[in-house]
Amino acid sequence: MMATITVVLSSTVVNVALPDIMGVFGIGQDQVQWMSTGFLAAMTASMLLNAWLNDAIGVRATFIGSLALFSVASIIGGVAPNEDVLTLARVAQGIAAGIVQPLAMIMIFRVFPTNERGRAMGIYGIGVVLAPALGPALGGWLTDNFNWRWVFYMGLPTSIAGMLLGLVFLPGRLGNKKAARFDFFGLLLLTLFLAISLYAVANGQRAGWNSNFIVGLSSLGALLMLAFIAWELKTPQPLVNLSVFSASRYSAAAVVALIFGAGIYGSSYLVPLFMQIVQGYTPTLAGELLIPGGLILALVFPIAGRLTDRFPAYYMVGIGLFLFGLSNMLMYDMNVDTGFWHMALLVLLGRVGLGVMMPALNAGALSALPQAMLAQGTGTINFVRQLGGAFGVSLLAAATEIRFGFHADTLAATQTAGNGTTLELISRVAGLDNSWGVPVTQTNAGALNYLGQMVAAQAQSLAYGDGFALVAIVFWVGILPALWMRPKTKEE
């Protein structure tokens, strides 16, 4: 639980410090989103290393080594002199997070007998839920009262505690079997696919979506994805067992998991930025707004788990998709005047939707597979969810940049000499500047600069609204594959 708290905190808590990081290093949203995307992409690829490392060097060494890597990366992130070093530190944190996260489930199922696993999962779940609920608020407080660098040090106490406890309690190896042959070539293809595809998405707006550079990178990414799929189907010991997708219900659940990952990580990235950039909230206030949504998950999880035993999985997943989509669609009209609790309740509604669908999604996916494929199915559905998160953050950041440019151009085109409201605003601002002692030769320039800032602020607000609407539409479209999870027979 110490390790999970550490990595769950780091997956989202940096988001409240992104505006400060943008200001310090003078970078835009297309560059700063790599703090989240790089972390998620690295975690997606490295989580596939977990089982092999457990067999090769043992659980204890895997656990302690991963947390040591995470701790070193956290320190490097805290002292990073530029955005490149900071991004590399986040990637290293993601590698450690991906390796260490699956260990919790492995150890709970190994240590506790069947009749005690529910209680163990409940205690473990408290830490998992409280970390993202309280982490952003603490991260915001550190950013406001110290600076953003302290956010990277937040996970060090639990990381060090986890290493000490792991040194005492964790076993060296789980059995005496030797490590199986690992699909390093498959991991290389997957890593290259993720890096090149995400880089193309992140730089599309700056370089031009139709430019030879972006088209070439996108084409290379697509070829690498096809090569990865072909290799995984061919190799006897694949990194990702694609045979699980032969079950149509499982494939439908995987599509929903992809959407789920994109939505939860994408919204966790977008909401803090909107609150700070558009509404002018402090990092502390932005973090506090996320607390109610995080805490509601602690109440919804056990209830949703029981309801999943009583109702079909596709039914619960569909309700969750609809609620999260509704939450984001209601955010479409949010602006600088939207109240704190109005926003907090909308975020809370979305978290209720996620809590309702999460247990049912896993249960519905695995119920479609035979007993012998449950291990592969569990790992693959987690991989797909993380893959959705990596691409969700990157695509959502790109979409808001595109819509910002569109709205800025559209609004600027209306600011003409024939627009009486614009002329009146310029006249009043120029008059105020003149009354404050600004030379007459500079008042018009100052008024035009103020007008430009207002147009940019309005365009930013509209762009974020479009981003929330996009998330809503994707989640509502996801109800279709959720319906395909329906069993062909009455058996669930």
TrEMBL record:
Entry GO terms, CC: plasma membrane
Keywords: Cell membrane, Membrane, Transmembrane, Transmembrane helix, Transport
Family statement drawn from the similarity comment of this UniProt entry: Belongs to the major facilitator superfamily. EmrB family.
Pfam families: MFS_1 (PF07690)
PROSITE patterns assigned to the protein according to its UniProt record, in alphabetical order: MFS
Gene3D superfamilies referenced in this protein's UniProt entry, alphabetically: MFS general substrate transporter like domains (1.20.1250.20), Multidrug resistance protein D (1.20.1720.10)
Residues spanning the membrane: 35-53, 60-79, 91-109, 121-138, 150-170, 182-201, 213-231, 252-275, 281-301, 313-334, 340-361, 462-484
SUPFAM superfamilies in UniProt: MFS general substrate transporter
Entry's localization field: Cell membrane
Membrane-protein topology: Multi-pass membrane protein
GO molecular function, one term: transmembrane transporter activity
InterPro entries: EmrB-like (IPR004638), MFS (IPR011701), MFS_dom (IPR020846), MFS_trans_sf (IPR036259)
Keyword presence, Secreted: no
Source organism: Caenimonas sedimenti
Domain Major facilitator superfamily (MFS) profile residues, every copy: 1-490
UniProt entry tagged with the keyword Transmembrane helix: yes
Predominant subcellular localization, coarse grouping: membrane
Name of this chain's protein: DHA2 family efflux MFS transporter permease subunit
